[in-house]
Amino acid sequence: MPAILRLLLTLTLLIAAAPAQAADHVSFGLDWLAEAEYGGYYQAVAEGIYAKHGLDVTIRQGGPQVNQAALLMGGRLDFIISGNSFLALNFVRENLPFVAVAAVFQKDPSIIIAHPGMGNDSFIALKGEPIMIGADTRIGWWNFVKEKFGYTDDQIRPYAFSLAPFLADKKAIQQGYLGSEPYLVRQQGGFDPVVLLLSDAGFSGYASLIATSQALVKSNPDLVQRFIDATAEGWRSYLESDPSPGNKLIKQANPDMTDGLLDYGREALRSHGIVESGDALTLGIGAMTDARWKDFFTSMVAARLYPPELEYQKAYTLQFIHKGEPAPPSP
Length: 331
Description:
alpha/beta; D-Maltodextrin-Binding Protein, domain 2; five-stranded mixed sheet; three-stranded antiparallel sheet; 15 helices; globular
């Protein structure tokens, strides 16, 4: 055998025998149970997108009794979903070393639903009306509608994370999520509710932000970058290609999830431009800007939720975004 062939054979055998580099394990906490609103993450697992970026990602579901922020602070999670911009600002206010690194949802999909034909068909019409909201909402977007539409805390009624009270009372009004409650009301109640989307009222906060520790940002920025890049790929695949791989994992994680609700939730994300709109159209999925953070913070100062001297810029970093392919135009 010629020497050059022996050399090539030897090199081939050495490469084949070399152990594969171990993927970096990442523990990622959702802020609710698996559903279409997390489809991009499950798609990135199912399609091997995270693996392609050298990541072994474990997705941990959230829920009403799960405090993912506490698990992040305790070092048990590497990344979490921050449901809206408030959590990142609260980290700053409480002097906690955590930061938002991407905003997957350019529009907050939070909604208020009401019964049709009752006159409760606009944000202005709901002034003074009882509204069922949860504790997180009370310290979140509720402050926006109080400031803009003159709502008061006297309107608040307990929210039990159930549609039963809403369906039983035609005068009932409650919080909801764009990709869930309208579909469930139609299925269980046989009618389409009035749907008021917070972002349509001018609520400028981001939603479904990815947050992590400042320590990880400093010690392993490459891992953070790979996670953000792979996540953007996963979301583009889920929204623009075949979502069935991600949906299969979602149903495994949350057996109560149905194909109908998954299809409805995905279409709501697409048709309303929740992920692919605004700055994401030119800067890529996960986009954030200084100008929008400033606008949100200023509005929350006006709502007397934060002091004007708060260093809100510490709530986020633009270090890891605006590097991928921009999203296609919204349908």
